[in-house]
Design brief:
The complex is a heterodimer of chains A (470) and B (305). Chain A is an alpha+beta fold and 470 residues long. Chain A folds into three domains: 80 residues, Beta Polymerase, domain 2, CATH 3.30.460; 46 residues, no CATH class; 280 residues, Cytochrome-c3 Hydrogenase, chain B. Helices cover 41% and strands 17% of the residues of chain A. In chain A, the strands form four sheets. Chain A has a four-stranded mixed beta sheet. A three-stranded antiparallel beta sheet of chain A has the order 5-6-7. With 305 residues, chain B is mainly α. In chain B, helix 4 runs parallel beside helix 9 and helix 8 runs antiparallel to helix 11. Classes of the chains: A alpha+beta (470), B mainly alpha (305). The interface between A and B is medium-sized, with 28 and 28 residues.
């Protein structure tokens, strides 16, 4: 249903610039096609809806838009590495997915008196995903940090090409464990968007429950992770226990702690009878009360609170400029939440929350999660009042097209999936997760902080590496 | 009595790792985990002792001499610190300032070894350690000074005896000294809120950092030295600042009670307090120094004595 507007390569920058002037936001860009006819597409979003613009990449070249939209930086760098594309105007075009030996090809150049580098990872002392961070520091102060990801690049997008839409869902699912519902649901929405299928009420409720269950255990985990970041064991233990209880709800109701296999294309993947929803609802209500109590404890732990204020600040304008999404953006005062604009889900009357003091620091991001935990629990308690039927989709009157886009609010922010169909086959699958959008913001927020505070700042964003690596 | 004290001091060599072990075990229970048992450090030492050492490329004698040197320093401090006001004739004397020097030498050896390996994390942590020790050593000296003033001597045995009488507790200087020394204990044992012994986050390490390159027997030396540091600091804390009166046997019993109390306090502090922001640590130690100086002023001015 999402139409592609073809733009002449010459008019590419102009089209983007005008869209931005009209208030549209950049939502991701991806290369599509094979040798000879490679196209470069960008998603533009506005409260009225989404549109995709596309231009032919003659000789694998498209003019860069990174000076207009800084958020497109990683998209262009990735396409350069994976599709061998060139973006005149994006200079220096530093490597992202590729890992060249020469540091000058991927690092921000930082020179000066007393500046030295600290290299961390990709192997860490704890159980952390594979990522390398190169810090430029003076003493304990961080001047700049370059994250280097893609250590576990599995080529899932390429692998999915040519499979049918049900098979391709498996690839989207395996991008990341902790975001499996968000990723598969964004994918399912994209396919249904292309095929002009509309979900019925049951399916919308069914999927909303899944998405919120995923948010529940992720947010509980993330709050615990921040406690671990400041070495506050009672907090990290309490929230680890709560997270496990949330995952036990998943296990009992859906047979999988990470909710794998619960999303299907075009129909619901499960049903829950009255006794299952009752027991899940009861467990969540208890969890809700216990999480609120644990949060109060944290609010009154002075030594924890003393660590949070003014650390890792992401200002409102920087969040906007870098295209930050999710709790990180809302903590910086950007009241945007894909849940508020999700006609395919059951978020009727949802308004995005934002903390009263949107300082954009670690404290605000932590508080943001606590606020969202509250609304997530309330929503789940409400939606689980009745048994869940699997639900289905109906043809929505419009003609099927070859391109579909789906966006859902993952625990880390808006996750977008674009799918291009070739008959029954998937010709291109592109997944741009909330983590992908937020990594540049994290790197920016870390600058000018103390090196020993970086783990805390990192945990306050708690971004996935696997979602980015794909 | 001196022979008996010497035996207790020698037993300290074997018992020292039990202190960090029991703090960890107690802490685990306080945090709602099962955790390793109190004898875990012994298992670790046995495992490490049977492994070969690591010899990073490009390192010199400084790297491999540091672990035995640190262990030797701690062994010497064990001989210097009296138990129950008595100590064996080990021929090293019992001067408080020698203790300060030995601790500084151990610290310097590790920092030099970190420099020798050139490992980023080791160096970073060693730099932090030295930065903090600028304040920490001042605090240690001041706290010891407060214990030395009533004894008119820096002999640790005399200091212990001077602190044994009940009337010392009416002197505010003694309370100031106790508070300052508690900070010293937190710092020297590498515990929260100053350092986090459980951290896996390389970027936040202080005491653990210089140990990163070591393995096998070298690491066993350093792990034992960490245990010995707990032993020396807690014994000293109990000897100089906690009540102990009566004969030698009673003093030994109260020493045991005092060390147990301090272990419990460390576990409790570590459970209830998050780690401080690193640049706040000097300020905390500075406050400790101010308290100690105020105590010294009050003693000299004759307040409460």
């Amino acid at each position: 249903m999402t139409a592609i507007e073809h733009v002449a390569p010459r008019a590419w920058r102009e089209t983007v610039a005008q869209a931005l002037l009209r208030g549209e936001r950049f939502g991701g860009a991806w290369a599509s096609g094979r040798e000879g006819s490679l196209a470069w597409r960008a998603l533009l979003t506005s409260p009225q809806g989404e549109r995709v613009i596309s231009c032919q990449a003659n000789e694998r070249q498209v003019e860069s838009i990174v000076d207009l939209v800084e958020a497109a930086g990683w998209d262009e760098r990735e396409a350069h590495d994976l599709y061998d594309m060139a973006f005149p105007g994006h200079s220096p075009l530093r490597a992202l997915a590729a890992h060249p030996e020469d540091p000058a090809q991927w690092m921000t150049p930082v020179t000066g008196d007393g500046v030295h580098q600290v290299a961390v990872g990709p192997i860490h002392a704890g159980v952390i995903e594979s990522g390398h961070f190169r810090f430029h520091v003076v003493g304990e102060r961080i001047l700049a940090v370059d994250p280097r990801l893609f250590y576990k690049h599995r080529g899932l997008e390429r692998a999915a090409e040519g499979s049918n839409s049900e098979q391709a869902l498996q690839y989207a699912q395996r991008a990341c464990g902790a975001c499996s519902v968000s990723n598969t649901l964004a994918y399912a929405h994209a396919v249904e968007d292309a095929l002009a299928l509309r979900p019925d009420r049951e399916l919308r409720v069914n999927r909303t429950v899944l998405l919120e269950l995923e948010r529940l255990y992720n947010h509980l985990h993330d709050i615990g992770a921040i406690c671990a970041g400041v070495g506050f064991a009672p907090g990290s233990m309490a929230f680890a226990a709560l997270k496990d209880r949330a995952q036990q709800v998943n296990q009992r109701a859906f047979g999988h702690r990470f909710l794998f296999g619960s999303v299907c294309v075009g129909r619901g993947g499960f049903e829950l009878d009255a006794s299952s929803t009752d027991s899940a609802r009861g467990a969540i209500r208890e969890l809700h009360a216990d999480a609120a109590a644990a949060w109060r404890e944290l609010e009154f732990a002075g030594s924890v609170q003393a660590r949070l204020d003014g650390v890792g600040v992401l200002s409102h304008s920087d969040a906007q400029r870098l295209g930050a999404v999710g709790p990180a953006a809302r903590a910086a005062g950007i009241r945007e939440d894909a849940r508020g604009t999700s006609p395919r889900l059951a978020y009727d009357g949802f308004t995005p929350a934002s903390p009263t003091a949107a300082a954009g620091d670690v404290a605000a991001r932590l508080r943001m999660r606590a606020i969202e935990l509250e609304s997530t629990c309330e929503l789940l308690e409400d939606l689980l009042r009745q048994p869940l039927a699997p639900g289905t989709t109906t043809a929505g009157g419009a003609a099927a097209t070859t391109l579909g886009v789906g966006t859902v609010e993952s625990p880390r922010g808006a996750t977008t999936c674009a799918v291009e169909l070739d008959g029954a086959r998937v010709a291109r699958l592109h997944l741009r997760t909330g983590s992908y959008a937020n990594w540049p913001a994290l790197a920016h927020a870390a600058a000018d902080n103390l090196l020993p505070d970086f783990p805390l700042i990192n945990k306050s964003f708690e971004l996935c590496y696997a979602c980015v690596d794909r | 009595m001196n022979t008996l004290a010497a035996l207790v001091q020698i037993a300290g060599v074997a018992l020292a790792p039990l202190l960090p072990g029991s703090i960890q075990a107690l802490k685990a229970r306080l945090q709602g985990r099962r955790g390793p048992s109190a004898v875990q450090p012994y298992r670790t030492l046995r495992r490490l002792w049977h492994k070969s050492a690591v010899d990073p490329e490009g390192t010199s004698v400084i790297y491999w001499i540091a672990p035995p040197l640190v262990a030797a320093c701690m062994l010497a401090t064990l001989a210097i610190v009296p138990v129950g006001g008595h100590a064996g004739p080990f021929g090293l004397g019992h001067d408080a300032l020698v203790l300060v020097g030995l601790l500084a030498l151990a610290r310097f050896a590790l920092a030099a070894a970190a420099w020798d390996t050139g490992n980023g994390f080791s160096l970073m942590a060693a730099a932090r350690e030295l930065m903090i020790s600028v304040f920490g050593e001042a605090l240690l000296v001041l706290a010891l000074l407060l214990a030395a003033l009533p004894a008119h001597s820096t002999d640790l045995r005399a200091m212990s005896v001077a602190a044994a009488s009940g009337h010392i507790w009416s002197a505010p200087a003694h309370w100031c000294g106790a508070l300052a020394f508690m900070l010293v204990i937190l710092l020297e044992t590498g515990r929260q809120p100053i350092d986090n012994p459980d951290t896996h986050l390389e970027l936040t390490m202080i005491h653990e950092g210089p140990l990163l390159e070591y393995g096998g027997r070298d690491l066993a030396f350093l792990q034992w030295a960490a245990g010995a540091r707990h032993w020396v600091m807690l014994i000293l804390g109990a000897e100089l600042f906690l009540p102990h009166w009566g004969g030698f046997a009673a003093s030994l019993g109260l020493l045991l009670a005092g060390v147990t109390f301090l272990c419990g306090s460390l576990a409790l502090i570590e459970t209830t307090q998050a780690k401080l922001r690193i640049l706040r640590v000097p300020a905390l130690l500075g406050v400790g120094c101010a308290i100690a100086l105020a105590g010294a002023g009050m003693w000299v001015g004759g307040v409460g004595t």
